[in-house]
């Protein structure tokens, strides 16, 4: 069973002069000697060091209080999530799955062995509570794959205790700097070992030049969404809050970009990719849409007075939610391990590496991007007008749903264009987000009513009182009606503020 913890730490170079006295730093009342530990860690990566290139480390370590397999995923500078799994002879499937989006079909092999003697100390407050752990590590590195040679160094590592105040690390660093200790140039022991032994290094990410042309701006947005999908993959597998939603948004942004900027990127290449992104967004949406519906219905039930709750409505909703969620979760995990998904990631890499650009890509961004955004906005306008011309009912519902989808596309196109177009694109992005939210409330009402109808039918067949389902259905009808009443004025305001 995996155990995940947030690791906040800083590393420092050491010249073997030892650790300066940290007593009295901030609220540090004492420094407790915890003795030494002998650590032996073997780091795994692909032959071309894909994990190291992404600042990800996977190791099998013995010795110390946390022997086992450790996967560290970057969160922010100095902050990583560490997933720990008990010792085994081979890479645990659970951890291999969490790096699948990085390694694809690549094989994980031992690349570096690090043996460290760690001199441990605890920084504690006046009540004896641990504030941070400080380790002085004497490290011996041996290259196992893709090179040869050894390296040796000493470093100081300061890790904040769980729930500790990050400001403490600033105070500790100030004391260390006064003693002549400097922050490490390497982000991890593995990075330093790879740099100081003979052999291949992880190829640094190519830093794209400042966008100049229309193509530069579009590709910068494409690259950001590709990176978001890959970065979010481990979080989705771990069922981290909002991760499925965020990955789904990234796939939609990417697909919308291919559609909106067809004068910049060759649609003969991007249209098939768009189809695959639509498939992925659909798979991500199976569980997400259900989760939103269940949360909404649960909230509404909590707000109802007990006298209006007839029959086992809450129990039936809970059973429906549990059954739907379990099936959707298993299906999604299968999708993330499927050849189709991994092929899509490879295809996105290829598009970023060798963009299928057209002539318009070389032009200045102002005209090209503005024209694309205006076309998307015009489609939203036409759909809003058409939908509101329909009488309340199914046709209007479908029309407003289509308008919502086009509003999303326009929002994403404006986002991509904002670095080039500035204020007008930023304003349109906000307007489309507001419109999308309003129309989203309407569509959610449609979906909730459909769900209530299905649950009511099952309850009726079981001989249960369906009064509450009808009550909730009526409330959702009024919710949709309020949106339709608000929409005309909202739309007039948006049209009047659009300058692109």
UniProtKB/TrEMBL annotation:
Record-linked InterPro entries: CHAD_dom, CHAD_dom_sf, CYTH-like_dom_sf, CYTH_domain
One Pfam family from the record: CYTH
Biased composition (Basic and acidic residues): 1-14
Region (Disordered): 1-21, 179-211
Occurrences of domain CHAD (ranges): 211-496
PROSITE patterns: CHAD (PS51708), CYTH (PS51707)
SMART domains per UniProt: CHAD, CYTH
Protein name as it appears in the record: CHAD domain-containing protein
